[in-house]
Amino acid sequence: MAIADPSNVTMNLPRRDARDKLLGRTRYTVDRMLPRMLHAAILRSEVASARILKIDITRARQMPGVRAVALAEDAPGMHGIGIADHPLFASGVIRFHGEQIAAVAADTYEQAQAAARAIEVELEPLPIVLTMADALAPGAALVHPDWKNYEVLFEGGARGGNVAWEATVVRGDTEAAFARDDVVVVESCFRVGRQNHVSLEPRAVVASYEDGRYHIETSTQVPWTVRNMTAKLLGIPASQVHLTVPPVGGGFGQKFDCTLEPYAAILARKSGQPVRLVYSRQEEMLTCLCRENAEIKIRSAVTKSGDIAGREAVVLMDCGAYGGEQIFLTTMTAHTLGGNYRLGSVKLASRAVYTNTPPNGAFRACNGVYNTFALERHTDEICQAIGMDPLEFRRRNVLGDGDLGATGQVFEGDVLGPMLDRMAKLREASPSKRPVAGGRLYGRATVVGTWFIFVGPPST
Fold first, then answer.
1. Which 3 state secondary structure label does DSSP give 39?
2. Spatial separation of the C-alpha atoms in residues 416 and 393, rounded to whole Å
3. Dihedral sign, Cα of residue 226, residue 231, residue 237, residue 241
4. What sequence ranges are listed for the domain Aldehyde oxidase/xanthine dehydrogenase a/b hammerhead (predicted)?
5. Cα 206 from Cα 26, distance rounded (Å)
6. String of b and e for 324-355 (b: at least 16 CB within 10 Å)?
7. In this predicted model, what pLDDT tens digit does every residue of 335-362 receive, in sequence order?
């Protein structure tokens, strides 16, 4: 019996959770309720840089309905993905507007908020750096003066001062490429702002403590990270943390870290009752792990015939007050700026920069979105400089079978070239809408974008 070619089989499988979601029966973390459950609120800093001289919780403890108050002494450790530079509560120093100073659990959310406001904090102002330009200026105040003492969780990056991490890729001799007489040098600079995920369900957690174990229900994309990091911050074995992930009401990278779970866990242990912590939309905007603001500088040495002899790029990524995911994301620049086109030589540097602003994080393809925008806009500027059709230049230079990528990877198969040909046919078949644009801006473009996948062992 002949077996059908699996590549020609289309499978349209229904999502098992679709019906409940459409009918409103799905219970997300924000819908979870437990008997005797308390509500938590966070006291946040209203300044971006200061030394904490005194915290007085006497009045807050006596407020109606208050069952527990948590401070830095309840979780003295540091956490992070690449560098352990982030305390759970501001400890001695405040590094961004919105940083957590204390947490309160009370019978109602309103009571918890009132008690948080009743906590008295005495501060001493410290120098502040709000932009990457400020942070990298000579003599700039250091967001982390003791950066040398932090535990580095994986090796491979350069660090120093307000540069939390730098990842580099060098292949070939770019200086020689730019010194050639037969090349045109094109330079571009782009700046992008922060972006917020605005998922329909905010970050939320319900935690309880019983028989020496924590049970945490949370809206997260990384349950193992939350489990392990919570255990580390609380100084307990990971086996004492049981995690459940209800349906997640949107993540997009926003819920790719351990952000609020330890606060609820500590309050649950101290109060002896389940604790619910849900960030308001204002808190989401104030402290969300946004897509980072960045500055991208690219320059290329290109021959008149359209060959890219050399390329250099520097990407500055604002990681905010703590390194977090940005340490890891710096390594992706090698792919996003060096994984589309053949390059005779290449030199790329990506730096995560500390500032006195909220920490940033992953957001749908991480830094790939703005780096692809920058690279493709730069490519159009190259085409203008050498007088070549943009589609023809891309066809000539996209990576194909046997080509060498920026990191030395040898590519297999031809995908990008045929895709450009297909896009050209689709564009020809689709008439321009310029006549109906009126006075509005109008444009059409064909760009190249690639992404990578993580290949690892199957789940067991």
1. strand
2. 13
3. negative
4. 23-127
5. 17
6. bbbbbbbbbbbbbbbbbbbbbbbbbbbbbbbb
7. 889 889 999 999 999 999 999 999 998 8
